[in-house]
Amino acid sequence: MRVTFMGESGRGVVGGAKPFMGAWMLLCHSLLTVLLAAVAASPLNNTGPAGCRAKCGDVSIPYPFGIDPGCYLPGFNLNCNDDNASGVPKPYIGSVELINISLLSAQARIYNDISWQCYIRTSHDMSYMLRSLDFTAYPYRFSDADNKFTVVGCDTLAYIRGQNQKARFCESTCSSSDSPTNGSCSGIGCCQTTIPKGINYYAVTFDGDLKNSRVWDFNPCSYAVLAEVNWFNFSTTYLTTADLLDTEGSGRAPVVLDWAIGDEPCEVAQRNRDSYACRSEHSSCFNSSNGPGYLCNCSRGYEGNPYLPDGCQDIDECTLKDEYPCHGTCTNIPGDYICSCPQGTNGDAKKGTCQGSRSNPFSSVKLVIGIVASTSFALLLLLCIVLSLVRERRKLMRIKEEYFRRHGGRLLLEEIKSKQGLAFKVYTKGELEQATNNFDKNRILGGGSHGTVYKGMLNDNHAVAIKKSKIIDDRQKKEFGKEMVILSQINHKNVVKLLGCCMEVEVPMLVYEFISNGTLFHLIHDRNRTSHVSLDARLEFALQSAEALAYLHSSASPPILHGDVKSSNILLDDNYNAKVSDFGASMLVPKDETQFATLVQGTCGYLDPEYLQTCRLTDKSDVYSFGVVLLELLTGRKAIYFEGPREERSLSSSFLSAMKEDRLLQLLDNHIKNEMDIELVQEIAELAQRCLNIRGEDRPTMKEVADDLDRLRKFKQHPFLQHNLEEIENLLDKPSSYIKNETFGCYSIEKKATLDIECER
């Protein structure tokens, strides 16, 4: 294998508009080659110092790996042991068998044992084999890009835990309506999920309570393994047999490890030349993308092992015609080659366009220009740079046009033209860069796993919020333009207005109206706040947010599901009016012909438990998340909070337990307790309790939630009418604790000297 160049810039003869410019443009090329040299990787597995074993059995061992003392860098030592079954030696990292090593990709592949649990019908007992791998003492990390956690079984839930990482789970189910399919691993009989980035330890566990006897009867075994992405192909026979294991109850799969040198970045490692691993004169350093440490590559035009002195050798491109074409005179130079047309012709010899020169009475002009060019070297060099920049600019424009087309930009422009009065603009990348001072970190308003929000100032001095997302699903790209038209028509006083987008980048950017007073989350939970938030204000925030969500569910066309309702996605404007945001933060995906839902991963503490079971987002999922926001307003606590020094609590679980045990007062915010409006608080709490029903169909709609909050707000705003308790009881002939006048819609307040009646007018 040979080194692959990272693009064509600066390689070969640069053809000019005039034939006589060829020789001097060739000189420009040579100079630019030095200026624009790029790093490329070498796939050659050069061995280490003299006397070191280059192989263990059939596996090549390139330095910095090694078997014998003095033949490896710290942490890269291997064992070479005889295999009793085959009689061929095999390399091991500790006790784990090594498959192969790649210097080019900085990866190693190993065998990983499969974890399993099986039901023994004869004894009605369970047998387990749970696996783990620990590379905390080695410079290896499990590749998050090349591995997936795979689980096979019916009604099987398995967890993968990394060191100091929250567990990730994968659940596969089986039912009569959804049958497993060969080759499909999407949750029916088989599921796959990604792993956290940069982990070097993992362990597998099963949820033993998920299966029932019916499932165990036809699916006796469940499996879980971290394995290479392309290794596994699901077969339905795995559900009824133990084909994934051998006769001894073992099975294994390949897994990919990323590796790096040390735990320092290049700029630090290069200071100590004794320990610096990039030994070759023609090597360069770059930082690892999957954790600490760095890696080495041979420079462009060289190949070999960059970890060895003289390990990177010059490539003779002139002998490799297939990889480095030249239809003329080829001259090898260190790190590159020159390909020129034969004497008397001009053109591009690499492309095979050399042609004979026309008869020209002024051919002596070539000589004159050559003499002038020799005295104008700096000017020609500048010209070469300009030409290169122009070409790169054109290339960038083509890329922007491709992104714009891919994201449906033309469709969006047509829709904007057809809908008169639609206040929506398609911005250029340059406009948004200028508005944010090239996305200066001082302009950051907030951010998370999906992207970063910047404050921008447009040319008309109009402030906006610009969301720069990190990723976009390939399925969303085709529908992006259509979805922007839908979102741009959302018009509600309590929904953040989407003003426009930028589509000439790989991941489109969204432009929203700027909301100045932060989020409801910061208002509730800011410990430095000196003034308290009254119950009236909390009720108003809840009502405005509920009305916005009800609008998205019921009045938008088509209806829109938010999918990530939380207090940090509710913004406050200059007058402290609530505005729901991020309803289009991820792209919209069609659920059917009439409804769209936001593609989300959700936020811990707000996630609908029914969504976790079914992976199906509904309008009742938003209702559940809004119920958690109501709890934050009532209690002043976060969705996930800490009761003691280390004990983590779920606010929704704590609230439901408190309601069941009549301990609501213990959870309430002290400021609410001081307002002595406990009956109103009780009604709000009961509304939150209905929103948090486990079954989505038992929850109210967002329209019903908004109506209930509006009724409670009107009760709070109207003055109390003082009546004699005895007269009211005689009039309605009911005890005071149960008085309800259906005609006037009035409710009594128990345990007071006088009866306060709240009436909704």
Automatic annotation (TrEMBL):
Transmembrane segments annotated in the record for this chain: 367-390
Domain spans labelled Protein kinase: 439-721
Gene Ontology cellular-component terms listed: plasma membrane
Main subcellular location of this protein, as a coarse class: membrane
UniProt key word Nucleus: no
Signal peptide: 1-41
Residues at which ATP binds: 468
Superkingdom of this protein's organism: Eukaryota
Keyword field contains Repeat: yes
Subcellular location: Membrane
Membrane topology qualifier: Single-pass type I membrane protein
Segments forming domain EGF-like: 314-355
Biological processes annotated in GO: cell surface receptor signaling pathway
UniProt-recorded Gene Ontology molecular function terms: ATP binding; calcium ion binding; polysaccharide binding; protein serine/threonine kinase activity
Entry keywords, A to Z: ATP-binding, Disulfide bond, EGF-like domain, Glycoprotein, Kinase, Membrane, Nucleotide-binding, Phosphoprotein, Repeat, Serine/threonine-protein kinase, Signal, Transferase, Transmembrane, Transmembrane helix
Function noted in UniProt: Serine/threonine-protein kinase that may function as a signaling receptor of extracellular matrix component. Binding to pectin may have significance in the control of cell expansion, morphogenesis and development.
PANTHER family referenced in this protein's UniProt entry, alphabetically: OS06G0706600 PROTEIN, WALL-ASSOCIATED RECEPTOR KINASE-LIKE 21
Protein name as catalogued: Wall-associated receptor kinase 2-like
Primary gene name: LOC103708460
